[in-house]
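> call design_seq(struct)
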């Protein structure tokens, strides 16, 4: 394994992505390139672990860019903790700081989650919560996993005149989010610009969709951007109005996504579930905790 900065064969990257058990939208080469960042990867025969990098106060720093929740690894060996540890050890020492997130392998069993030293490097691993709905061919089976409150909210939404649209643009979501939610969640302009870029990239390659809900008077109530990859649908971005909260428009919209996804995909991934309130809301649809890994490292030498 070795660190490579963008000099791999694109077909090789595609084959690693194809061989991956977990296929996230962020893991394609084109998605990384669409962010307009400098990035490389630890490359092995059957694994690649990507990382963005930049210079901070004269030193190279590895980081997770905006627009990505968890990045890699990909390849046949991507679901093996031992191979991931080998890859992490190969990050060059000139990266004085590394702070990244990656997919959790099936056999993950790290005993040391506090800061500890390894090879003159101070490092730690931590689990970041995320929630996923396991879809099936039978919508009723998924619906039965909804909480009582979710079922009540869904029933309540049917009393409003809600209309679904599938032809809005990402700019509609960004405008509504910026007007109603941006201050609440303290999102930066860089994040907004990046997420806009990634949404249009996914639309362009046919791997994304904008779904919105409108109420009486053609007033926006709720909207989501969904990314499609492998066997999963990923909720990449969302916005809701005050009217939409009252009408439970987002519950209505997510239920429609689940209806659409059953029999087509296996997983609905509620990307970005770190907020406690969001976690509770997503779990009300029967979503299961599926954490990913945050890795932080300071190089002493």
């Amino acid at each position: 394994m070795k660190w490579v900065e963008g000099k791999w064969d694109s077909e090789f990257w595609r084959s690693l992505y194809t061989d991956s058990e977990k296929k996230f939208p962020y893991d394609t080469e084109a998605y990384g390139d669409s962010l307009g960042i400098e990035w490389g990867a630890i490359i092995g025969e059957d694994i690649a672990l990507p990382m963005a990098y930049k210079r901070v106060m004269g030193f190279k720093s590895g980081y997770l860019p905006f627009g990505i929740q968890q990045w890699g690894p990909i390849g046949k060996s991507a679901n093996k903790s031992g191979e991931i540890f080998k890859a992490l050890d190969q990050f060059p020492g000139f990266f004085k700081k590394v702070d990244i997130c990656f997919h959790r392998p099936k056999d993950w069993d790290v005993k040391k989650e506090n800061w500890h030293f390894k090879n003159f490097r101070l490092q730690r691993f931590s689990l970041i919560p995320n929630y996923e709905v396991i879809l099936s061919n039978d919508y009723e089976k998924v619906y039965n996993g909804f909480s009582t409150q979710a079922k009540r909210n869904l029933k309540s939404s049917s009393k409003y005149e809600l209309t679904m649209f599938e032809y809005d643009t990402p700019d509609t979501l960004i405008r509504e989010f910026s007007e109603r939610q941006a201050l609440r969640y303290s999102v930066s302009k860089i994040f907004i610009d990046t997420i806009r870029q990634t949404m249009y990239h996914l639309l362009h390659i046919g791997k994304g969709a904008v779904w919105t809900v409108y109420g009486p008077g053609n007033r926006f109530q709720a909207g989501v951007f969904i990314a499609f990859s492998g066997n999963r649908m990923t909720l990449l971005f969302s916005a809701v109005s005050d009217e939409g909260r009252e009408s439970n428009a987002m519950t209505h919209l997510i239920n429609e996504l689940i209806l659409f996804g059953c029999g087509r995909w296996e997983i609905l991934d509620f990307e970005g579930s770190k907020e406690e309130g969001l976690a509770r809301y997503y779990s009300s649809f029967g979503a299961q905790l599926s954490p990913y890994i945050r890795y932080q490292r300071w190089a002493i030498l």
